[in-house]
Amino acid sequence: MAAAVDFILSGGASNTDPQLSRGGAKSATPVNSSADQNLFANVGSTEAEVGSEKYRCIYIEAPVGKTFTNLGVWISTPTPSNSSRIAIGLAPEGLNGEAELIPDEVTAPADVVFTRPVADYQRLSLPDLNPGDYIALWIKRTISVQAQGFDNDYARLTVEGVEV
Question: I need a surface site. Which of 16, 50, 121, 133 has the fewest CB within 10 A?
């Protein structure tokens, strides 16, 4: 069953800009799940021509009054474009740890293993979360060299677990 966790930007307590969600302290701003480009900006023509890898860090947090066990996260909707890919990896800092702050969106975070779990049985296991607990998740977007234009290219993450 999908868990009603919160997805929160990183980049410091006052960060409200998804483009600056590159690790560091947890923000007070949730990821806007109803907005386009809620983590990555549109791909421009130069980026599509030369390709790129960009990184974002978000926190998965248990809301006040909720406890979750047996949690996992996966890419429930992979990007429909053949020119883009999303991969995810847990921050090595662990439960309630502050993720590494990377200097720019093209610098890979250290010691993060990225995978592409696209089904619940492939999911990345998360620790149990008590109210207010959180874990940092890194997201890598890869754009192929000579990428073709694609309207409405997106991916969706799902966190599933047991609320106790």
Answer: 121
